[in-house]
Design brief:
This protein has one domain. Helices cover about 80% and strands about 0% of the residues. The protein is built from seven helices and no strands. The protein has helices at about 5-10, 15-30, 30-45, 50-60, 65-90, 95-125, 125-135.
């Protein structure tokens, strides 16, 4: 099964609902910055960006939509790795060593995968998310 197939299965099973909610909050909270990003791109002489492309490029540039949740999810993965190593070793591993090794081996790939998941979620409901960009700020 490919990465995209796994993401699709997670999406269809509702396991990405929290990311979808985070994405909605992120777009609402960063509307002005997304518009400023689009304006900056045009000022550089680049072609105008459509709403959906401006949002996606801003997400890719920002690299996160909910840092707290993403740190919690990474900590969960590290805990899982500690459990796996503990079973393999027959005793509890050094937690700091496991965390450092996990970060060195997996953090960059984990973050890249997370951005792919976020963009996938965005693409599945692009029209709804673009409408959020166009909403006036709440008073």
């Amino acid at each position: 099964m490919s990465e995209l197939d796994e993401i699709r299965d997670d999406y269809d099973a509702g396991r990405l609902d929290e990311i979808k909610k985070d994405l909605e909050r992120f777009i609402l909270a960063h509307r002005a910055q997304i518009e400023a990003f689009r304006t900056d791109q045009q000022a550089r002489g680049l072609p105008p960006l459509s709403d959906d492309v401006a949002i996606k490029f801003y997400i890719i540039r920002h690299r996160t939509i909910n840092p707290v949740r993403e740190i919690q999810d990474q900590l969960h993965e590290i805990e899982r790795e500690k459990w796996i190593r503990g079973v393999a070793l027959g005793h509890e591993p050094d937690p700091q060593q496991v965390a450092l090794e996990w970060a060195g081996r997996h953090s960059a790939g984990w973050r890249a995968h997370r951005v792919t998941v976020i963009i996938y979620c965005f693409d599945r409901e692009k029209d709804r998310y673009v409408q959020l960009l166009k909403q006036p700020p709440a008073a």
